[in-house]
Design brief:
Strand content: under 5%
Largest sheet: 2 strands, antiparallel
Shape: globular
Distance between the termini: 82 Å
Structural class: mainly alpha
Number of helices: 10
Oligomer: single chain
Protein name: Flagellar transcriptional regulator FlhC
Length: 219
């Protein structure tokens, strides 16, 4: 069982990680329990740097969002749910998922940390609400997980944002820019050397096998 000091240190570490991801003070308070004034004092000594703006409201936003926003929202929540399924606490799972999302998706990132928080809250019924508005469903065609209204069942790929991205990829520059084709890394000298050795070894073995087979076939 954690001591009070350990809990406070953990809350401060989580608050710092949330602030680094661009979280608003309100979001940090929900995730850590820190009072707003304390969060401001500890994390935002420069009051001009405090994130501002209207807090996201994802249940209405998601269903009217464009394709790229829906795809990236689904990526964030899928990453978050995987960490939750691995028994990570909700706050740490959200931070880890958001960092991973930022690392794998092309900037500019369409999902802010506050939006990710709101999406997770309305998926699990946490922090902001007891009501679950979203479910992660699996596309029967591409097998990707995507967000849908709570209780939905994906019987086709009609609402899968990832299938739609694939369909539009060849003609939509915005989709191409958001998910660029990654070039294959050039092999190093050591890797090339190993490939040559393997090819020679394979060729030698094939030649020996062919000679042996020819000898056995002779009367």
């Amino acid at each position: 069982m954690q001591s009070r000091v350990d809990r406070q240190l953990r809350a401060l570490a989580l608050a710092k990680a949330c602030a680094a991801c661009g979280a608003r003070v309100r979001t940090i308070g929900h995730l850590t329990g820190l009072p707003p004034r304390e969060a401001l004092r500890l994390l935002f000594p420069d009051r001009m740097a405090v994130p501002r703006g209207r807090s996201p409201d994802s249940p209405e936003w998601y269903h009217g969002a464009n394709l790229l926003h829906r795809a990236e929202a689904s990526i964030v929540v899928a990453l978050y749910r995987r960490l939750r399924d691995a028994d990570f606490p909700a706050g740490e799972a959200l931070v880890g998922a958001y960092r991973h999302y930022v690392g794998i998706c092309q900037p500019p990132h369409r999902i802010s940390f506050d939006r990710a928080f709101d999406l997770a809250a309305h998926t699990d019924g946490l922090w902001l609400t007891d009501t679950r508005s979203f479910s992660l469903v699996t596309c029967p065609t591409c097998h990707s997980e995507f967000l849908a209204a709570f209780g939905s069942v994906a019987r086709s790929n009609d609402h899968c944002p990832f299938c739609k991205l694939v369909q539009r990829y060849g003609t939509d520059p915005r989709v191409q820019g958001a998910f660029p084709v990654q070039p294959l890394a050039a092999p190093s000298a050591e890797q090339l050397g190993m490939l040559i050795l393997l090819q020679r070894s394979f060729g030698s073995s094939t030649g020996q096998a062919g000679t042996s087979s020819a000898s056995e076939s002779q009367p």
